[in-house]
Write a structure and sequence with these properties.
The protein is of the alpha+beta class and 207 residues long. The protein has helices at residues 2-32, 57-64, 126-134, 144-147, 174-179, 182-206, and strands at residues 46-49, 51-52, 73-74, 87-90, 94-103, 106-115, 139-143, 158-164. The chain is 40% helix and 21% strand. α1 packs antiparallel against α6 (182-206). It comes from Panagrellus redivivus.
């Protein structure tokens, strides 16, 4: 009887947490979801910084080379580009992506910069591409699956994406970008923690 009562209690707890996570995910989606109806006027002859943190080098040849355009530089200068960082011609918008990267058993953050049209070798979905460009000048928390990005951190499905329009406009300090969005990153970590906790509880119930 005690075992049955405990099992029912666990099921109720899992159900309550699942509902809370669903509400949290909806709140995040509502705040950061793309508006696909915005019409985008694309500028011409734009230049963007093109680089990636050194951390990407360890996974580039066996994970990313068949998916992403190669950056001009692999360098820690990518966190705050200067004249030593390469540029790339662009006819859309510049981007900066900050994400968690898990390499050699160590998790850390890395940054990648470039042109939206030259992120993926086979291109972004048209709706996604235009939505990203339409939010130029903003940073948004985005599910990496929406952008079809390669997962480099198994426990965090989100990346911070910032876009802008203008000559080498993606020059802002990436660490400062993160510091201006602490609530966004905190929400993603809370969501990941909830999901992990639910998975553990479900595993406990099944056993």
């Amino acid at each position: 009887m005690k075992v049955a009562s405990w099992s029912r209690l666990v099921v109720l707890v899992v159900s309550a947490i699942s509902s809370a996570v669903a509400n949290l995910r909806r709140n995040i989606d509502d705040k950061f979801d793309f508006d696909y109806d915005i019409q985008v006027v694309q500028p011409l002859n734009n230049d963007c910084y093109s680089c990636a943190s050194s951390a990407y080098l360890t996974v580039w040849n066996h994970l990313l080379i068949a998916k992403y355009y190669p950056p001009k530089n692999f360098t820690e200068r990518c966190w705050e580009p200067d004249s030593e960082v390469g540029t790339i011609a662009c006819t859309s918008a510049c981007y900066t992506i900050v994400e968690e990267v898990y390499t050699h058993g160590v998790s850390g953050r890395a940054v990648m910069r470039g042109c939206v049209d030259k992120l993926l070798l086979f291109g972004l979905d048209v709706d996604i591409r235009e939505a990203i460009i339409s939010y130029a000048g903003e940073c948004r928390l985005t599910d990496r699956q929406v952008l079809e990005l390669v997962p480099l951190q198994p426990n965090n499905p989100v990346v911070l994406v910032c876009t802008c329009i203008g000559r080498m406009c993606n020059k802002d300090n990436a660490a400062r970008m993160l510091s201006t969005a602490p609530r966004i990153m905190a929400s993603s970590k809370l969501l990941v923690s909830f999901c992990s906790f639910i998975a553990l509880l479900n595993a406990f119930v099944l056993t």
